[in-house]
Amino acid sequence: MAKEGKRIRAAREGIDPTKLYGLDEAIALVKSKANAKFDETVEISMNLGVDPRHADQMVRGVCNLPNGSGRTVRVAVFARGAKADDARAAGADIVGAEDLLEIVQGGKIEFDRCIATPDMMPLVGRLGKVLGPRGLMPNPKVGTVTMDVKGAVGAAKGGAVEFRVEKAGIVHAGIGKVSFDQQKLVENIKAFADSVAKAKPAGAKGTYIQRIAVTSTMGPGVKVEPNTVLTA
Fold this sequence. Notes:
Strand 8 and strand 9 (222-224) form a beta hairpin. The chain is of the alpha/beta class.
């Protein structure tokens, strides 16, 4: 086993790995342990009682963080005509149709979110093997296949966070920056957890949300008491 460095040992001081902390205390610890030279992202991980190998236990959705994510999101939109104009007016970074298809097929993917109008999906579908593995494929379930491109671009730019359960039954996301006020981080985490709770699939059995932890990009994880996160 690799030996822990002094920085890691120092960061873990004062954090009990066996304790479940209240959300406010957990966030305070995360903020105090974030000592990198950049504004670290605060991340949440949730262990869910699901098996994503079964279609009726897949968890996927989107959460509009009330205080934004603090991240600059580059948005690409597949649209034509008036909808393309709407996307540009809303602040989309890249807008196109066949021309954008060629750019992506050429391996140039300079965006973090991809939105498409429904009529563009036959075209976008040809990019499934490129966009799918990167989690960029537009999907109506998370609002990225829509005629309301203006609203979708605005949501993406404003802090909408997509989530999808991994094979191990874990959902994770960045929900803000350590420079955020503590209350804003708390509000974002509660909003995200509420979105995940509402996305509970029909096939989920037993305890749905089993464990929650928060951390910063370079900091240690802090276990959180779920009851202090989840709203009634």
